[in-house]
Amino acid sequence: MQRVERDLNRFRQIVRGRIKKNLRKYMSHGEMIGRQGKRYVSIPLPQIDLPQFRYGTKQSGGVGQGDGELGDSLGQDSDQAGQGEAGSEPGAHALEVDISLEELAQILGEELQLPNIKPKGRKNIVTEKDRYSGIRRTGPDSLRHFKRTYREALRRQIISGDYNPDDPIIVPRRDDMRYRSWKEVLRPESNAVIIYMMDVSGSMGTEQKELVRMTAFWIETWLRFQYREIDIRYIVHDAEAKEVDQDTFYHIREGGGTKISSAYKLCKRLIEERYPATEWNIYPFHFSDGDNWGGGDTRECVDLLRKDILPKVNLFCYGQVRSLYGSGRFAHDLEDYLSNEELLVISEISDRDDIYDAIKEFLGKGK
Questions:
Q1: Can you give the CATH number for the domain in which 219 is found?
Q2: What is this structure's pTM?
Q3: Cα of 237 vs its chain's centroid, Å
Q4: Same structural domain for residues 204 and 175?
Q5: From CA 301, how far away is CA 263, in angstroms rounded?
Q6: pLDDT, tens digit, for every residue of 342-352?
Q7: Mean pLDDT of 334-363
């Protein structure tokens, strides 16, 4: 059994190393998100062969010996590659490995060097914890309260007249025994809320929403590892904003223009009505292609962020996804007006390969 455990641990370490080495590739492919369960996710890995020594036959020559001339190719000629008849041997197959979301978050934190988050708010809905705060007459020997047991035995002997001050021997009996007891107490626990906001105007297509979905998976993986409980709210907007469920968030498609301030106003109202900053750790994430309606709406967004949202949140992240129809101007406006705001993080996600860097920028401050 020890050998089996040793081999299993070795296999796990190899798998962990493969995932860390290819993490950027996994973050840029959405297939694994489709294999996500409640606590585990299946990751396709190339077939893993454990290394082992193989010994050749004796008198077979040393390294560099054998037929051939200097300059001869050791492999198959490039002009012959891919030629020949179909073979009958099986090819290499991918191996699907189940890994817990907690371990995946640990790998993510190690590879991206993400600092652990220091919670700011504490929610009033609390967890249960056992605390030893009482005494009872029954219990296991491991919980025996020696001082109270001695006191009961001493009192009994004094009352019965058996106590001799010149020979103070105290012998507890069964009914003298006292044991520690516990009760469940409520302990405040750090909880968090993620507020996703996304532009669903006509310029945001399927590919842009897929980038948002993949980025959100890694955001949630890390924040669920940092907090006991996570609430997630979804806001979509074009010229108007509304709260929706998760499925609608990723699949809705609407036309019309874009008025980003409508989403920020709804985010502000959610925080004020449901998630007070004194009790919650708040993480708004906004995704858009950077187009915004004129008429001073960008200025209104800046004022909402500076006065009403940033003072209440742990972090506000804006991810700008590239679109054929989006101007990409909003990210530059935020940088111009709010470059000194420490809690504002801006990242441009042009394609799937940028998700790795976006997650590092979003979560790298440990807020």
A1: 3.40.50.410
A2: 0.67
A3: 26
A4: no
A5: 9
A6: 999 999 998 99
A7: 92
